Amino acid sequence: MALTRIQPPAIADVREPNFRNIIINGNMQIAQRGTSTASITTSTYTVDRFQQVFAGTTPGTWTMSQSTDVPTGQGFANSLKLDCTTANGSLSADSLLYLTQKLEGQNLQYIKKGTSSAESLTVSFWVKSNKTGTYIVELNDLDNTRTIHNSYTISVADTWEKKTLTFAGDTSGALGNDNGDSLRLIWWLAAGSNYNSGTLNTAWESTTNANRAVGNVNLADSTSNELYVTGVQLEAGSVATDFEVVPYGQNLERCQRYCIKSGTGSSHNSVGGLGLAFSTTQVDTNFYLYLPMRSIPSLTQSGNFQVSDASAGTATTSITLISAQSSDYNLSVRSVVSSGLTDKRPYRLEAANSTTAYLLFSAEL
Questions:
Q1: Contact between 296 and 327 (Cβ < 8 Å)
Q2: What share of the chain is helix, strand, coil (3-state, %, to 5)?
Q3: Whole-model pTM above 0.85?
Q4: Strand, helix or coil at 70?
Q5: How many separate helices (H) and strands (E) can be counted in the chain?
Q6: CATH superfamily of domain region 36-256
Q7: Which of 54, 93, 161, 173 would staple 192 via disulfide (CB 3.0–4.6 Å)?
Q8: What 3-state DSSP class applies to 40?
């Protein structure tokens, strides 16, 4: 009897991203630090990978948040919102305010910067603001102190607009093949005369501060001002392709190379594996990472923590990262209490009667 081959059911065409988008979290989907940060006057992250940068005399006070205001029908659920809460209508010469994503040189070798085959780069994004006028976007090569700029116009107030800008390839200055801060994509928001009194350079040149933000509006000049951005894509070539969608899990993993938030949830939520007491006042706990961070991070604590065994919890007085015992894969954290621990007994590090306490590990560029 002849055998009949049974064909397997058709498998849906699930396409993996090819990561043509150099930008991480361009759809503003991940915000590990929280969805809003108020009273900002110094350089700050809220939405992952996007930093609001201040320098010189502070150009106003700001709130940065993850918003659900998005362009209709484009497949985005979130945007990054900047809201001016204290205005500065007369900027000092040294005032500087911009939004940026910083990029590792080792992720950019394929653009062949510094060679005769250097690739052009195209950035596309959606933007919305009540303040119409000219804005500047910059590529800043920190390895070689070189910059190039393009301008765009917000034409209609309070309306989502898509912008596409192409930057020529740079045949001078190779980017470092390492995990350092090599290239920045920058959206200028406000600039004093130190940054806007020259001639805007639309070709690659050695960085001249006076040429960097020529013609840019002052978004800090009114507390009515706000700006939204989403759908950010930076890619090799002179053509802007459709925004590359990365599954949530992969997007989060890429962000966690630079920032990991451990904690939040239920009260007494454990934030690490079991630690071991090395005295009556000290417990060392290891955090084993699935993927490496960019470098050994810094540690910031928010809220109250305790170390606990099966019987009781003891409040911590400090929690610090032990850099000498840490690597990009394994983080060693030391919790100190006033007294009462049993030497060589295992303890776990946990939030103390709080659903919002967390530890934040940051290896940002």
A1: yes
A2: 5, 40, 50
A3: yes
A4: coil
A5: 2, 22
A6: Galactose-binding domain-like (2.60.120.260)
A7: 93
A8: strand
